[in-house]
Amino acid sequence: MIYTVTLNPALDYFMTYEEIESGAVNRTSQTQVSAGGKGIMESRMMSLLKADNTAWGFLGGFSGQYIKDFLTENKVHSDFTAIQDLTRINVKLQTLKDETSLDAAGPQLQEKEIQAFIDKFEVLKADDIVVFAGTIPKTLGEDFYQRLIQKVKEHQATFVMDVDGHKLLETLSDHPLLIKPNREELEGIFNVKFERNDQIIPYGKKLLEMGAQQVIVSMAGDGAYLFTPEKTYFAAGIKGELKNSIGAGDSTVAGFLAEYSKTKDAFQAFKQAIACGTAKAFSENMPTQSFLDEIYQKVNISEVD
Ligand SMILES: Nc1ncnc2c1ncn2[C@@H]1O[C@H](COP(=O)(O)OP(=O)(O)O)[C@@H](O)[C@H]1O
Ligand SMILES: O=P(O)(O)OC[C@H]1O[C@](O)(COP(=O)(O)O)[C@@H](O)[C@@H]1O
Prior knowledge:
Layout: E1 2-6, E2 10-16, E3 30-36, H1 38-48, E4 53-60, H2 61-73, E5 81-83, E6 88-94, E7 99-102, H3 111-119, E8 129-133, H4 144-154, E9 158-162, H5 165-171, E10 178-179, H6 183-190, H7 201-209, E11 215-218, E12 223-227, E13 232-236, H8 248-263, H9 266-281, H10 289-296, E14 301-304
Family: Belongs to the carbohydrate kinase PfkB family. LacC subfamily. Belongs to the carbohydrate kinase pfkB family.
Pfam family, one: PfkB
Catalytic activity: D-tagatofuranose 6-phosphate + ATP = D-tagatofuranose 1,6-bisphosphate + ADP + H(+); beta-D-fructose 1-phosphate + ATP = beta-D-fructose 1,6-bisphosphate + ADP + H(+)
């Protein structure tokens, strides 16, 4: 079983404008609400791929209830810990020019809610995979992922980290099955600036040396690299109309895990990862199965060095 952990889910409120004038009243032409948060997006994509998974995390208030109902209606299995406070609402502004995220800090959590959540980890078995994704609400403390990783290890299960920058580095010595920084996050981690994508290669390999079992570095429209201890692969970016790239990275991780958990074949898993990330970026919502299949046919992966 794959468990996704979203400590800080979000009701994503998408607002579409031709352009936004700062300091003025802007009237939107289109709005849309979606169940978000990185682990939740991953669970949604894995469920589309019919990979067994359960979404864990904290949900509260009307926004939390919306997400819970949305997941049930869309046949995404979840087992969230109920909280008193309100699940955050993140505003996603889309204009003809670009996408802007206005993300909230997240709810206050009570000690008994935190304990109820930690207790869930007792069900873990040796072949389970736990995906830690996204930011941590302030009340949990910056080291909360470390505590959860110890729980995963106690049960001989494996884990995947889909978190930002330096929090990612702290987990490498515990050998995550997969990490997926994007190009900008990788620049931040190593304090470098890439002028060409191939300059990424030594840094991807470095993350393997530091303890990650497999590394994907995603580069939005430029595709992605996969680093495994045996080989490095490059997936070319696929051309198409960008509709909504929110969740493209989450879908990449989901595609990889859906395939890898069944076959343990990193190359095939990378193919599915690229198809899912791209199909998400080219869809307003989650892609349909037929669109996913169409994009899968266009995935082009080559071995590097
Ligand atoms: N504009 C785009 N065109 C084509 N593919 C895209 C685009 N944006 C994202 N993707 C696909 O989704 C993957 C993840 O996107 P990226 O933006 O790098 O991740 P994140 O959402 O984590 O920042 C990319 O590796 C690529 O396969
Ligand atoms: O947990 P974080 O890092 O604050 O991110 C939350 C946001 O991430 C998302 O899952 C989107 O992920 P990406 O930013 O990787 O596209 C949104 O649904 C949500 O609003």
